[in-house]
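Q: Structure for this?
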Amino acid sequence: MSSSDTEKTASSVQRIIIVGASLAGLSAAEALRSEGFTGTITVIGDEPYAPYDRPPLSKTVLTGLLPAEHTTLPQRVDLHAEWLLGVPAIGLALENREVELADGRRFGFDRLLIATGTRARPWPDSAQAALDGVCLLRTRDDAAKLRARLAAGPKRVLVIGGGFIGSEVASVCRELDLTVTVTERSSTPLIGALGSAAGMFAGQLQCAHGVDLRCNVTITALEGDENGRLRHAYLSDGDTLDIDVAVVALGAVRNVEWLHDSGLAFDSRGIICDSTCRAFNTNGMATDNIFVAGDVARWPHPLYEGELLTVEHWGNSVEQARTAAHNMMSAPADRRAYETLPAFWSRQFGVNLKTVGLPTFADEVVLTQGSIAERRLVAAYGHKGRIVAALTVNMARWLPAYKAMIEARAPFPPVLHAPDGPAELRPVPAGFPPRGQSTHSPIATPTGPGPSISPPEESSTSAKVQDPRVPPGFQPK
Amino acid sequence: MTQQSLYEQVLDYANRANPYPLYAQLRRKPITRQTDGSYVVSTYREIVSLLHDPRIGSDFRKRFVRELAPAGFPTNQEPASENQAQEAEVPVPNQGSETEVIPSFIGLDPPEHDRLRRQATWPFGPPHKPGRVTDMEPQLIRLANRQIDTMKGKASIDIVEDFAYPIPVKMISELLGIPSEDQPHLHSLSEAIIEGIDLDPQESQEERKRRQEQSGQTFKKLEQYMEALIERHRKQPGSDLLSGLIIDHGPDGAMAPADIVSTASLLLIAGHETTVNLITNGMLTLLRHPEVLERLRREPNLVIRLVEELLRYEPPVQILPNRVALTDINIAGTTIQKGSPVILLLASGSRDPTRFHDPDKFDPDRRDNMHLGFGSGIHYCYGAPLARLETQIALTEIIRRLENPRLVHDPPPYRQSSTLRGPRHLIVEIDGVRD
């Protein structure tokens, strides 16, 4: 393509396909129309529903306050989009510019946005996973089913994995006055996303709310009765639990398999794109017509030393999709880079947790305001003497100040003299486990350099690290 | 007489009717150090940044200013230039022990502030009392219309005395459970307190000190009144907010009796001195923009965004003068020195052209409107939900009912304060009152 052709492409874009009908897909469609795109927009989604909001699924939907079907996202602008829902995309032909659907239909495009997101990582033993009572939590249907089980008053709920989803489910169980056990292969809950220093706090919170929290413990097997109903869980500490319900909360798997043989640069960590959201092909070239946004994207953020990030945050899906939409219809000179700082929130056990920046990039963490005893605190994360992230517990109003410090690459530990700060700053190791060691998602994480570096080879060692049944203490060589 | 600094001109009553051109000049430099050692912040970005900065406090007891050492210089001598003068750390004049006042949460820092604010929020809003403000709507509509009914048969009215003042004052009194016969007394106390804390660059140290002492003594009277009122509510609690503060405890437990006094006093003053100006500024702005006034009459739903734009365009709280730097802060090329007073010009930030498109235009359709009308950060206006509802209802009702309202004096006479700024009177001629 000559350079004059490239200049013209923006106005010659008539057909845009968005694969993925969730928050990122919807945000992109809205941004396209808001910026004046008049061509056709086709949105393809594997679920039968219009885009819905996921954060309530592990919170108010489970408590029963919000019916699962009331999570549909509002559409802020008239999209005039064609919605192809309930049929997944199964293939991409780059040279023909076509997407293939599971029912055999093919659709051509001038620009494609890939926003296929993630799915819940299933329990590794498929027969055990199929037992009546073993639940996942990712979709609206998952949430409705789990809500029904919790409402039936099970005698004990087992949550496998102490990440954010697992912790929020446990929190809801306690709110509903249900007995709940959480098993976590690492030493603390939330360790993958926040490190063990903050994870210790999260663990204390769980115990104070009556969760039977078992760290450094795995589930070695689930067992059902003759009717296929879940009855027992066997723990690596030798214990056996009588249970009706097990929630498998082992993090997320990226929906990339449909891109097999497409020629795009992807692996289990995501689809590699540049900071303007253009996908790379396997030759390390950025494509001009394929864009990526949301959980499935893997891209270089300027603040994090060239590491490719994957971010599973709500806000990331919105902002990255808007950037992708803008760049899809812009001439090369008008494209903009995606530099939004990651930000995340959770609500569990009566506290509001928020982060800004990338905790998983840090080696140290320090309490800067508030105290653990009050359950109100701010902690700053540092990497090589500069601040890279901050966590607040019930003190989110201070986050903008920390965001500014992160963006300014301010020194770590930050000397603030805040009136509610400690007399002396005492940084401690942040305590992130080796990659793959925790049994839940880090949510936002650097994933190594790219785009041409291939993932660590699958071996019996890495398979063991990935297997949530393998007890702790196993050290990869 | 020496030339006034831009900020001193803002404080000067002569510029009360329109401080906005002065703000525009101030914004050429985000932060300017004043000769008294304080720092004035005028740009949106820097104001927002400092409002969320843990290195900034609101407790005036942590202040000390570096100013020109007065000792050794006869008072009539030419003032020495700054670099010649010896700098001395002088604590900000505090009230004497007899009139010393326990700060309410607006003048405290975390963690004390946070606890008091949570305790004060418990009986006021969600999650415990989600209906506290919204349930006042029918009463507010009745009250507004009763006030408008009194205008029947008159050719000219004073929006301040006849309308903007009675509504919020009546509502804050009801909210706190203050008997109506006590309300005039509290009105005069509140006025005297506000006059006492206002900034006047013209006056001498002695005058200021005397005025502050007087204000402190008035505050003592208000506190004595509140103590007696609290005693009555403790014996006979009602459904009002004050009774809630006394008997309805959240997870933080009961508020200490002295804190209930200071909190109730704060809410009373805030309820007297802010929404009055918001409603009056609203009426004035609508009369200056007849096309918007006409639209509001036809489209009452416009009022939601219109009030937000008002909070940006003519906010009742123009200045936050009470912040203090807890350590040296480097910002926008300036170092704010530890202990210095920091003065945030909220109204200037909300007119910053680097943040708002066409900021001097009153545009009720404005979508991107993250104004600073209620501040931001941990001291964000506690009464914002009530102020919004009161102003939305007051403006909708009065615009719906007044026939052909016309502004008589433009600009109208203003009250003294540059901080809590608004007209003293707003005389409007009318052809009648609709039913």
